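Ex. 9. Protein: Chaperone SurA.
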Amino acid sequence: MATYLMNNMRLFKVFSAVLLIALAPLTHAETKWLDKVVAIVDDDIILASELDERFDTIKANIARTGKQAPPDDELRKEILDLLVLENIQMQMANRYGVRIDDEELNGAVARIAANNNMTLSEFQQTLVASGASYLAIREQIAREMILQRVQMGNVNQRIQVTEQEIQNYLQSSEGKEVTSPEFHFAHVLIPVPSEATVAERAQAENKAKSLSAQLRAGKDIDNANDDISISDLGWRKGTELPALFKGVASKMTDGDVSEPLQSASGFHIIKLLESRGVKQLVKQTRASHILLKPSAIRDEAQTIALAKQLRQRALNGEDFRELAKEYSEDIGSAQEGGDLGWTSPGQLVPEFQKAMDETTPGEIHVPVASQFGWHVIKVIDRRTKDVTEDMRKQIARNALHERKYADELDIWLRKIRSEAFVDIKI
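Predicted structure tokens for Chaperone SurA:
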């Protein structure tokens, strides 16, 4: 049945693409073909209009960059190959049931507008002014999102990053550069002319010391006045900092102000506004929970009543772990007595996180609802953990994954292309 429907859909698309205009008795001269099939791909087709539209778009994009486009025939062939690959993946998406809902698509369009420093309304107006169709752009964005989702779903499972690869990467020059700390400094310079006298240099140094003391006492660096030079150095890797600042930066924490640092140009004061990757401390919580889900057997009200009853039983002295083993419907944690282990902020759904944060160790929160059902949450303990090394490893893992992804994607695309039925008509 599915094959029959797909074959009929293909035939419908073929016949819909062809328009016959007959003004008198049918003759060859009176028949006008407005579109034609340029390729058959498995259970679908690619039309000449699709190829022409993509050709015009890509050629215009190349022209805007100022680069030389390949000869038209060569470019058209490359674009047709691209459309074939996209078509194969879109058919896979249909089989997998991959969809992009309106809310997700709206968010993606809004991010694109924001990246171009526009509101959504301004983005729409700009497209209309340029002659583009906003609906067509939305459809293209949705298509790209679907393609990306299909690719990630198939390629990510082919990629493995080992602990040894991570360690090797961290010890490499690239790894050290990528994972090195980042600093955001504000900088004050009290200039000293090269021809300054000893007295003038001493006066500048005293001024620098006084200003440094004021800044450490809480004076806003933006309000430091007179003839001094103030600048924002922005975010910089530790390896990119001026040699004068490197030794000091590693010893500073956010908000610290340095003592005056002397160079040939004068006296420098730096304030560390923010830092990343220096030392990452995360407040973690260890909690247990009992999850109850409404069902055909137990409605919402009955589920809430049971959750309240179980909480009260635990407060009355019954073992929370045993109650979780007996009643919790969270397959992942029930056999562990509901223990979720140590979690960091953002790992759990917002409703659960909020309730957990409000509960002190040893207490049991009133039942709270989330997308998964009703939770009875017991907080066991809290701690602050240094996750700097974990963060460095995650950065390395992401870099290695991204490097492998491009290679694996190319291999996978070649594979699905070789396995598909493709009949090029031009």
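Check your answer against this statement. Residues 388-419 form the longest helix (32 residues).
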